[in-house]
Amino acid sequence: MIAKEVTILSKTGLESKMAARLIQKASSYESNIWIQKGERKANAKSLLGLLSLGISPGDKITIITDGRDEATALNELEAFANSGMTE
Question: Residue 74: pLDDT band by 50, 70, 90 thresholds?
C-alpha cells in the first residue's frame, strides 16, 4: 500500500463530471484505490463515495493505492490530478 498527497487544481473541485473522470481513470487499474480527505476515505471507483467527501478547489487529498499495479496507478492518478483532471 502506498499513498501520496495532492492538491485539487480543477476550478470546480470534485463535482460529478470531474468525479466521473476520476472514476474512469481509477477503474482502469487492478489495484484498490481510495481517496482520503481529512479523516474520511472513499473508494475512488464509487461516484457516491467521492461526492460524499465534498472536495473543493485547492483541497489537499491523499490518493491511496494497494495492489499489483499500485505504483503505476498512484503515479498516473497524481499526474491526472495535477493536470486539473483534464488529461
Answer: very high
